[in-house]
Amino acid sequence: MRFLNRSAGRLSRHRRGRFAGLAVLLVALLVTGGAYAALAPAGQAEQSQDNAELVEQGRELFLVGCSTCHGQNGEGVLDVNGNQLGPSLQGVGGAAVDFQVGTGRMPMVQPGQQNPRKSVAYSDDETAALAAFVQSLAPGPDVPDESDYDPSSIYELPEDERDAAINRGQQIFLTNCTACHNFNGRGGAMPRGGYAPTLRGVSDKHIYEAMLTGPSQMDVFSDGNIPPENKREVIAFLETLQEQPQQGGFSLGGLGPVGEGLYVWVVGIGGLVGFAVWIAAHTTRTKKGKETA
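Structure tokens predicted for Cytochrome bc1 complex cytochrome c subunit:
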């Protein structure tokens, strides 16, 4: 009987211990959940509400200024002949909108081969709202944070590490960008009437977004192809490139051998031909003067 009582007591204590552990776990979950409910959702709900208001503001701006070409839901529009009037924006992401609108390329003045950079039509807040609306249509590259594109952290490195990072940016640029933007980033002609715009005077943010989204004829360099840290190194190289003096004197716009060859033909050879014509005309007038005398 005593054996049975001791066995029952051990079983009872075992059960109480197991139930006590469950009770402690439940209390811990309740406390954690209560703290989360008291602190986190308020900020998240406020942030979600702010984002919803920003998306709604962007939708109103989009319906007025963009829907004629891109459709009310960014699905794209075809003209009466079935030609693409405005491409679909579903999936392009907010970064593409921030680049196109932030550089004044959109809205377009008139359809053309390529949208030139011009004065912006929307404020920074309106651009952010349009980007938020397009981002809500479908997943795509979002507007980058300043930490993604700001190369200031590279300049704070020790000199050897800083130079190595800028050299990596130079190699990436020479490998992927010089065929279109020229070796010094001043741009150049492209097939079928297009052109690669100059990178001089372009903000770090817009250079990063251009690499991320591939506007117009440009290739897309996603974070899988060129990670953010390498994109910052490219931006750092372009900044140092703009600060370099023109050691060779007049650069002829930095357009390379085509521009230099055109200069030689028009100015150099053209000047020689003009000088030869002048000599011939002067010699003729001298002979006529002598004959008259």
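The CA atoms of residues 184 and 241 lie 7 Å apart.
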